[in-house]
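Q: Is it fine to ask for two folds in a single conversation?
A: Yes, each is treated on its own. Send the first.
Q: Here.
A: Result:
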Amino acid sequence: QVQLVESGGGLVQAGGSLRLSCAASGRIFSRNVMAWYRQAPGKQRELVAQITSGSSTSYTDSVKGRFAISRDNAKNTVYLQMNSLKPEDTGVYYCNIWDVVSGTHSWGQGTQVTISS
């Protein structure tokens, strides 16, 4: 099993920045994809950004140019640097790791991000 612990959420004004971190522990295979999802009130959870174990990245259109995902494989940690934040970025942000070998997904408990206008 894999455990994920997120940190770094909070309340900031529009235009501000936050950095989320997610540390993974447990049985982690080398081939995996780490990702950040978010869920706004009343909406479905959506994929925000993902990064492969080879550091290939992809982003949802609404955050391109503002968010940057990165990872430290030695620490099994993934980061999400969020700049130029907007009120519509508000939501609970969840860390996810997809083990490519077994096909399993693991989730963190979520961290609240609130952007005030």
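Q: Second one now.
A: Result:
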Amino acid sequence: QVQLVESGGGLVQPGGSLRLSCAASGTIFSFNVMGWYRQAPGKQRELVASITSRGNINYADSVKGRFTISRNNVKNTVYLQMDSLEPEDTAVYYCSLTTTNVYWGQGTQVTVSS
């Protein structure tokens, strides 16, 4: 089993920054993909960014140039640095880890509002 624990959400003004963290524990295969998804009220969950254990990165077009994903393979932790936040970024952000299965964190609320 794999457990994911997220932290770092909160309320921020437009143009501000937040950093999300997600620590994975349990039995984790060396090759895996960690990522961040988000779900706004009334919308489907969407991919924000992902990073493989080999460092290959993928971003949603809506966050390119503003968000940065990174990971520490020793700590099995993934980070999402979010800059130039916009009200449209408001959502519950979920961490995921994909190996032979897909595992999800509990979600953390990010609210961008003045």
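Q: Anything structural to flag on that second result?
A: Two points. DSSP finds no helices and eleven strands in the chain. The chain has a mean pLDDT of 95.
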